[in-house]
Amino acid sequence: MKFGTVPAPHWRGADDVAAMMRHVLYALVPAAAAYTYFFGPGLLVNVVIASAAALATEALALRLRGRGARLALSDGSAIVTAVLLAFCLPPLTPWWVTVCGSAFAIGVAKHLYGGLGFNLFNPAMAGYALLLVAFPGYLSFWLPPNVGDLDYRALTLAESATYTLTGTLPPGADLDAVTRATPLTVVKAELGQMHTLSEIVTDPVFGDFGGAGWEWIGNFVTLGGLWLLYRGIIRWQVPAAMLAGLMLPALLLYLTDAETHPSPLFHLYSGGALLGAFFIATDPVSSAITDRGRLVYGAGCGLLTFAVRTWGVFPDGVAVAVLLMNLLVPAIDHYTRPRPYGH
Amino acid sequence: MTSADLRSATTPWRYDPQPRRPGWGIHGATFKRVSRQAPIQVAPLPAVVTLCLRQGAVTAVPLVTTGERVDTGQPVAVAADGTQIHASVTGIVTGIGPHPVPGPEPGLAPCIVVRRDAPDRWHESCEPLPEPSRLDAADICRRIAAAGIVGLGGALFPTARKLAPGAPIRALLVNGVECEPWITCDEVLLRERAATVIAGARIAMHALGTAQAVIAVEGDMPEARVAVHDALQAAGDCGIGLAVVTAKYPAGGERQLIELLTGEEVPAGGLPRDIGYVVQNVGTLAAIAALFRSGEPLVSRIVTVTGSGVAAPGNVEARIGTPMRDLVDLAGGYRYPPTRLLMGGPMMGFALPDDDLAITKATNCIVAATAAEVAPPRPEMACIRCGECVQACPARLLPHELHAALRRGDTGLLGELALDACIECGCCDFVCPSQIPLTARFVAARRAASPGGEATP
Questions:
Q1: Residue B10, pLDDT above cutoff 60
Q2: Residues 195-254 of B with CB under 8 A from A
Q3: B340 reaches A (C-beta below 8 A)
Q4: Are A15 and B433 a contacting pair at CB < 8 A?
Q5: pLDDT for position A183
Q6: Pair A42, A91: CB distance under 8 Å
Q7: Interface contact B377, partner A, CB < 8 A
Q8: pLDDT on residue B167
Q9: How far off is chain A from B205, nearest CA to CA, in Å?
Q10: How many contacts, defined by CB atoms under 8 Å, are there between A and B?
Q11: Which residues of A lie inside 8 Å of B (Cβ-Cβ)?
Q12: Angle A305-A311-A313 from CA coordinates, rounded to 5°
C-alpha cells in the first residue's frame, strides 16, 4: 500500500491565529458588557464602525498589495485591532473619527509595515495616538458612569448611534450636560490647580479606588485577561511587569505624599491600565518575545504609563507608553536573547 | 587542562532522581495507552528479509554472495569500523543490490535479501561469550561491534564507538525516556525485561570503567518504573540509580536528558563523553546483555505497531528486515485506510511511501496514522511573533528569528542564532499558530550549509 510522504513533524497543535484572535474577542465580552452598563451602548456603536472600517481597509490594503484577502480577513486580527481601538474611544465619538483611527491603524500601522506579523507598532494604539493628536477634543467627550448618584442620562442604542452618525443629540440633551471628564482628567486638572487629592476625590466620578464604574470595568477586563492566561493565549510576564511598573512608582510617591499623588490602586483602576496590561501590551506582534524581554517590555510600559500620567500632558499614558516601548522591542529582543544549549 | 580532565571519572557527579518539569517542550496526548498494555509478541519468522547495509553515515560491505546459504546470526556484511550485519533468518541470499529503504527521504540503499527456507539454525559463531567482567573494554567493544549492536533509539550510532576506551567517564545514563507520542517499545521492554537491561548496563559500565549509572524512565510509565525498581533491588548494590523524568517531549533527547538529570550541558559541537557521560538506550543495553548471555548478535528488535489505522496495536519482537506489512498484519491489519505511515513517532519520524519496506535496526515504531492524527496541513500564515516556539524550544533557540533570517536569506545570522544547536525535534512546528513548517526549513538550511555532512550523536 502506498502513502504520501511529507517532512516531520506529522503532528501539530490545534491552535491557530484565527483561534487566538477569537479567544481575545471572547475575553473582551465581559468587559464590553460592563462598559455598556456603565457608559451606555456607545461602545457597541464604535465597535461596529471601527470593525467595518478595519475590514474595509484590510481588504483594500491586501488588494493593493496583491495578496489573497480571504485568509487574512478571516484571521480576526483586524477585528481585534478595531475592538481594542473602540474600547479606547469615548462612547460618543463621531463616526468619522473612529473610521480615521481604524483605517490608520490597519492601513498605515499594519499594512505599510508589511501586514500581520510585521508591524512595529501596536496598530490599535497607533490609531488611537493619531486621534489623540489630530482630534483631542472629540476624545474628551466621556459620559458620567451609571452609578446612581450622578446625573446620568442613559442614552439608548438608537440615540447613541444617531449622535455618532449625525452629531444630533435627543431633544433636551446638550453635549455639556451629557458629557463628563474622566477621573484621570479630573485628577490632572485639579492637581494642576493645587487642589489636594482628598478634596478631589469627593467628586462623584470617583469610586472606592479609581473611577466609579471604571473599577468594575477593570475587574471584568481582568477576568478576561485571566481567561487568556488560562487558555495560554497570553503569558503572565507582560501583564505582571506592566502593572508592577505602574504601581510600584505610584506606591513610592503615594507614600511620600498622598495628597498630591494618587494611590497605586487609583492608577490600577483608572483609564486603560488593566486593558493595556492584559490586551494591548500583550499583542504578540509588537511586544518582546523572550520571557526576560517581556518582563523588561512590560515594566517599561508600566513605568512610562505612570510617567505620562504624572508628568505628561495627557491624562492617560497607556497608548504613548506602549508605542514607545514598541520602538524598543528590537533592542530588547536583541539584548535578552537566551543562551542556546551548549553555547 | 581540558574540560574532560576537569571532570574526570573521580569527580563526583550528582543526578536529580526527580528532575523538575522542564519549561521547554510540549505535552499533550501521548497515545501510548493503545499499544502499551499488551505483552511483547514474538513475530513469526518472515518469508524474506531485506537487510539494509547503510546504517547512519556508514555503509557495510557484503561478506556473502547471491545464492549462498546463510544461517541465522551469520555475518553477511561488515562496516569499516567492524560493525557487522547478520542474517536474521536461515535461508538463501537471493539478491544483493539497491532496494527502497525507510529513511528521512524515500530512496534506495544497498541491501542483502535473504529468502527463508528453514526454521532458525543458529550460525556456529553464536556461542555464549566469556563472563564480561573478565574481558577488557577493547575486547567488549570488539564483540559488541561484531554483534552488530547499534543505538536502537533510532540513531544507529555504533554502540562500540560510544563505549570505546577514551576520556574518563563519570556515569552511564540509561535512556528509557521514550518521549515521542505513540512509541512504547522501550516501556514494554523495561516492564518485561528490566533485569536484562540492568545486566546490559553493568556490562557497559564495566567497559566504560565507571561504577555509576542511572536509569531514567518517564513519569507516565509507572509499571516500567516499578519493574526497574524491583529489578534493581534484586540486583543488589550495583551502583545503578533510578530517575523519573516528567513525561514531556523531548525529555528523552540525549542532550536534553543529560541537562535534566545532571544540570550540565553538552558543549556545542561536542559529545556527551566530553563532559563524562555516555547515554545508552535501554534496547541497546538489552541487546548487549543478550549477546553476552547467549552469543546472539542483533537480529531482532522490539517494534511498536500502532496508530488508529491498525486494528490491534501492540509491541512485537521482529527480525530485522521483516517487511512492515507483515507487522501490520500481525497487528490485525488496517482498520481504517491510513493517511500516512510513519516510522518512529509523529514528531521526528519519517513518512514512508510504502508498507512493503523492511524494518531496520532504527525501526522503533510504525504508526499507521489516520486523518484524526495527521490532520491535513492548514495554510501557512505570517509569523505573529507569539513566542510559543521560543518557549517550546529545548535548545533555547529563537525559531522565529531563524525563520525570519532564512526568509531574508541572511545565512550569516544563522550561525549567530546557533542553528547548529537545533535538534530537529519539531516542537516549534507543533506550537506554531501560523502553521509555519519551521523544522523542515531548518533541516533544509542545515543540509545546504553542510552538504553531505551528517550529524553524529
A1: no
A2: none
A3: yes
A4: yes
A5: 85
A6: yes
A7: yes
A8: 86
A9: 26
A10: 162
A11: 1-13, 15-17, 19-20, 71, 75, 77, 115-118, 235, 284-285, 287, 289-291, 294, 333, 337-343
A12: 85
User: What does DSSP say about strands B240-245 and B213-218: parallel, antiparallel, or unpaired?
Assistant: parallel
Give the pLDDT of residue A152: 65
Interface residue of B386, B430, B447 to substitute, partner A, most A CBs within 10 Å: B386
Contact B375 A12 (CB under 8 A): yes
The CA-based angle B153-B156-B162, given to 5 degrees, is 90
* CA A331/CA A336 separation, integer angstroms: 9
**Cα B364 to Cα B284: distance, rounded to the nearest angstrom:** 12
What DSSP string describes B222-264?
HHHHHHHHHHHHHH-S-SEEEEEE-S-BTTTSHHHHHHHHHS-
Residue segments in chain A with a per-residue pLDDT below the cut of 70: 148-152
Q: What is the pLDDT of residues B80-136, one digit of tens each?
A: 989 999 999 999 999 999 999 998 877 899 999 999 999 999 999 988 888 998 999
ipTM (interface predicted TM): 0.90
Segments making up each domain of chain A, as ranges: 15-181, 182-335
**A50's grid cell:** 471601527
Q: A259 near A198, Cβ under 8 Å?
A: yes
Q: Report phi then psi at B300, rounded to 5.
A: -145, 165
Contact B430 A9 (CB under 8 A): yes
Using a CB-CB cut-off of 8 Å, the residues of chain B touching A15 are 431, 433
Report pLDDT digits (tens) over B325-364.
999 999 999 998 899 999 999 999 999 999 999 999 999 9
* pLDDT, averaged across chain B: 91
In order of start, what are the domains of chain B with their CATH numbers?
Answer: 3-30+128-294 (3.40.50.11540), 41-125+298-369 (3.10.20.600), 388-449 (no CATH)
Classify the phi-psi angles of B82: left when phi > 0, otherwise alpha if psi is within -120 to 50, otherwise beta: left
Chain A neighbors of B381, CB-CB under 8 A: 16-17, 71, 75, 116-117
CB B429 to CB A343 under 8 A?
no
Average pLDDT over residues B246-274: 94
